[in-house]
Specification:
This is Formylmethanofuran dehydrogenase subunit B. The chain folds into 3 domains: about 45 residues, no CATH class; about 180 residues, 3-Layer(aba) Sandwich (Rossmann fold), CATH 3.40.50.740; about 170 residues, 3-Layer(aba) Sandwich (Dimethylsulfoxide Reductase, domain 2), CATH 3.40.228.10. It is globular and about 70 Å long. It contains 13 helices and 19 strands. Strand 18 and strand 19 form a beta hairpin. The mean pLDDT is about 95. The structure holds iron/sulfur cluster.
């Protein structure tokens, strides 16, 4: 098959244009990435720290290991299959992978009767818990860019996790507002210096308040929206500011309330999300308003989509016993890891694998150069989606799947290929008599 990778002009770096960035769920597809042979990448078109750091992490391939000893890939696959074939309570988690990798991981988990979860599902579940309880009115990044005239950013600045949010989706003038206008309000959080710089051409209001009480501020706003005479201060924000913001919300043509749930502190952060969702619902009595829950690092949105279309339920699901059982508390990977005997941990976007209890057998698929607290039973180095091989990842707003290209060839297999090989090597079940 012909490769779509450009060839190296002698002595000069290869320049890749319009590269899709697969890392934070914002779906930037405009990157210029320079490649120095044999496998060094450098992002040239943006200062996004996440993209710069992740694209530049391309150490040379290393061989798989079994019990710390380098072995050929086929031997590592056999060893992983033997361990998984004997597992009593397997966990297939991490799941930092592209859509193909997720499909292979869920097929393997179904075969094993394993619990499945994503490493970053805490933030996802702060949103999903509310979606399951109350429903919500949500919008897309494209609607934000093209229609929104009032953006209310609730809680800590989401640009800490999604660095180009304001540059790509807020600073450009809305295409469908006449005249084009946009105002940004930060509620219970302060914009980063980079955000202030990007938004320097727009009216920006900062109501810093207490980020830990963002839900209180949302509730106070909802009350003031319903009845201006009930405007009261909350979360360190004065009654006058709450009343003024409620009035601004009431008169907006298309307001968007955005939040990054992963940045909310505290054990019941879903209640903060619930109050923001309630504020959006109440604002629709007066004008058009929608929520924008931001998530999406390591393709968590795509992996959750695959799980949902495959099994009818989201992540944090057990596939033991033949029927998917979804329990967001019991099958949280961090909780289930305490009882799992074998863990398959997939982390193809970042060289990070958590520590597991000492008696847990770990099969790790991660980039070369990953440092482990304890050497896993089996380590298989894998390529990074969108860098080592073409890959589909979902955008944070769930409506768009982007296809990243393969940029370099380090000879690393993708997650899907490795997991399919492990599944094929599993001991065959004895036929029923
Ligand atoms: S903002 Fe996110 S998607 Fe965009 S370049 Fe940075 S890490 Fe990549």
């Amino acid at each position: 098959m012909a490769s779509d990778r450009p060839t190296h002009p002698i002595g000069r770096p290869v320049v890749h244009h319009d590269v899709v960035c697969p890392f934070c769920g914002l779906g930037c597809d405009d990157l210029t990435v320079e490649e120095e042979p044999p496998s060094t990448l450098a992002v040239r078109s943006t200062d996004c720290p996440v993209a710069r750091e992740r694209f530049s992490h391309t150490p040379v391939a290393e061989p798989p290991r079994v019990a710390g000893v380098p072995v050929p890939l086929a031997e590592a696959v056999e060893a992983a299959a033997a361990l998984l074939g004997a597992a009593q309570a397997p966990l297939v988690a991490g799941l930092g992978t592209d859509v193909d990798g997720a499909r292979a991981a869920l097929s393997l988990a179904e075969r094993l009767g394993a619990v499945v979860d994503h490493a970053l599902s805490d933030g996802l579940y702060r949103n999903l818990a509310v979606l399951q309880r109350t429903g919500w009115i949500a919008t897309t990044l494209a609607e934000l860019r093209n229609r929104c005239d009032l953006l209310l950013v609730a809680g800590p600045d989401p640009a800490a996790l999604h660095p180009r949010l304001f540059e790509r989706w807020v600073a450009p003038a809305p295409a469908f507002q006449t005249p084009p206008s946009r105002e940004v309000v930060f509620l219970c959080g302060e914009p980063l210096d980079t955000t202030r710089a990007v938004l320097s051409g727009l009216p920006v209001t900062v109501l810093p308040g207490d980020p830990a009480r963002t839900g209180d501020a949302a509730a106070a706003l909802a009350a003031a929206l319903a009845d201006p005479s009930r405007a009261a201060g909350a979360a360190g924000i004065g009654a006058g500011d709450i009343a003024a913001l409620a009035e601004r919300l009431r008169t907006a043509r298309y307001a968007v309330v955005a939040w990054g749930a992963a940045a909310f502190a505290g054990p019941h952060a879903d209640l903060t999300v619930e109050r923001l969702v309630g504020l959006v619902r109440d604002a629709n009595r007066h004008t058009r308003c929608a929520g924008l829950p931001l998530a999406g690092h390591d393709n968590i949105v795509g992996v959750n989509q695959v799980c949902t279309w495959r099994f009818g339920v989201p992540l944090r699901t057990s596939l033991a016993g033949g029927t998917p059982r979804h329990d967001p508390h019991r099958f949280d990977w961090a909780r289930y890891a305490a009882v799992a005997d074998v863990v398959v941990w997939v982390s193809s976007f970042r060289p990070e694998v958590p520590a597991f209890p000492a008696d847990t057998t770990v099969v790790a698929l991660a980039p070369p150069g990953t440092a482990f607290a304890d050497e896993p039973a089996v380590f298989i180095p894998v390529g990074t989606p969108g860098i080592d091989h073409p890959a589909h990842v979902f955008r944070s707003d769930t409506v768009v799947a982007l296809r990243g290209r393969g940029l370099i060839d380090r000879g690393l297999p993708g997650v899907a290929a490795v997991l399919k090989a492990i599944a094929a090597a599993l001991p065959q079940e004895a036929p029923a008599c």
